[in-house]
Amino acid sequence: MDDLTQIKADARKAAFQRRKAAFDMNKPGVAGHLSEVLAGYRGVPLSGYMPIRTEIDPLPAMAEAAAHGPVGVPVIQAKSTPLKFSRWQPEGALRDGPFGAKVPEVDDYFEPEILIVPLVAFDARGGRLGYGGGFYDRTLELLRAKRATLAIGFAFDAQEADDLPLESTDQPLDMLITESRVLQFSR
C-alpha cells in the first residue's frame, strides 16, 4: 500500500467515526437546507442517493423534488465505471443494489444535471473524500464534459476535515449542505 492510499484510508477511518457520532446525535428531518436549495431548481433532473449506514438522509428533499421533475438514484454498473441514474419515486418498488443501497426495481435511466453526493469527509474548499471507488469522480467528469453539472455534497457538519488527501482526479463539489449551513464554492 503506497503512502497516499494509507493516508486516505486513515482519513476515511477518522471521518467515519465523526459521521457516526453526528448520525447518532441528529434527529430525523435534518434535510431542511437541502429542500430549500433544491426548491430553486424545480424541474431540473437530479439524482440523490439511498442512504446507507450512517449517511445523512436526503430522501425527504428528494421526495419533494420528485413532485416537480425527474429524480434518480445511482446504480453501480461495474467496478471502475461511471454511475448510471435510474428514475426514483418516493413510493416506488426497490430492489437490493450493490454495496447495500436500494435501487429502483425497474431501470429507467436518465442523465441528471444536479447530483446530491454522499461523502465520508469534506473540506472548506469543496474537496470531497468518498468511499474510494471513484464512482462519483468518474461520473462527474463524464457529465461535466457534456454540460454544466452541479455537484451538491450532503453531510453532517462533523464530517468537515481540515486537510483532505485529494488527487487531481477528485472532482470538486460546487456546493455543500449540512444540517446547519449551505456552502458555495467558486470554480
Q: Could you characterize the architecture of this molecule?
A:
The structure is a single chain. The chain has 187 residues and is α/β, with parallel strands linked by helices. It has one domain (3-184): Rossmann fold (3-Layer(aba) Sandwich). It has 4 helices and 12 strands, in the order ααβαββββββββαβββ. Strands 6-3-2-1-7-10-11-12 form an 8-stranded mixed beta sheet, with helices on both faces. Strands 4-5 form a two-stranded antiparallel ribbon. Strands 8-9 form a two-stranded antiparallel sheet. The longest helix has 23 residues, at 3-25. It starts with a helix and ends with a strand. The model has no long low-confidence stretch (mean pLDDT 91).
Structural key phrases:
alpha/beta, Rossmann fold, eight-stranded mixed β-sheet, two-stranded antiparallel ribbon, 12 strands, globular
The helicity comes to 25-40%
CATH H level, superfamily name: NagB/RpiA/CoA transferase-like
What is the top-level CATH class? Alpha Beta
Put simply, the count of helices is: 4
The name of the CATH topology is: Rossmann fold
Q: What is the gyration radius calculated from CA atoms? A: 16 Å
What is the total tally of β strands?
A: 12
How does the overall form come out from the CA principal axes? globular
Task: Offer a concise description of the structure.
This protein is an alpha/beta fold. Helix content is 27%, strand content 20%.
